[in-house]
Specification:
- This protein has 6 helices and 11 strands.
- By secondary structure, the protein is α+β, with helices and mostly antiparallel strands.
- It has a single domain, classed as Glutaredoxin.
- The strands form 4 sheets. It has a 5-stranded mixed beta sheet. A two-stranded antiparallel sheet has the order 1-2. The chain has a two-stranded antiparallel ribbon with strand order 6-11.
- A hairpin with a 2-residue loop joins strand 9 and strand 10.
- It is globular, with a radius of gyration of 17 Å.
- The relative contact order is 0.19.
Amino acid sequence: MPTQRFAHVLTCVLMLSGLAGCSGSPSLTDHSGVQHTPLAGEPGDLVVVVFSSTDCPIANAMAPDIERASIETTEAGGRFYLVHARTDLPDERTRDHASRYKLSMPVIVDRSHTLVKLLGATVTPEAFVLRIDENGGHTVLYQGSVNNLYGSVGNRRVNVTEHHLRDAIRSAAAEEAVVPSRRTPFGCFIERN
């Protein structure tokens, strides 16, 4: 019994240092200095995480659709986070980017790639629609593209005809299965640290 208690305490100490998680939910700071735990919440909570980059033209082209997805998530009672997966990105740059692209959601810089690794993100933009489960973990309901603006890297359509992320959010909010649950995202590769 003492060994189990020691292991639990050690796990929580590691969580506080950002190396592990008691419930798999790291705490990260947004560019305004506010702490967020995107992967935590009450059972049934809807959480959307979109990995982005200030200098990825594909992610920037999708910014209006990302903002609309954020609004729809909030209206459905969920939480939405834009996560920049860069180790060297100053908060001033993310604030300027959010202002320029009219992004109203919390913007987090994942400098240690904690969320990148936990969710397995590979490119920007890449979206994750999650449901918090009864055990304090999460289930990935959707992973993939924001929309079909790009059919492949360098292959941009004139207009978006499919809103993959927004469709996934609507299905998840209605507690329906998200079909398909995975779509290949096209974007700028996340450089792993």
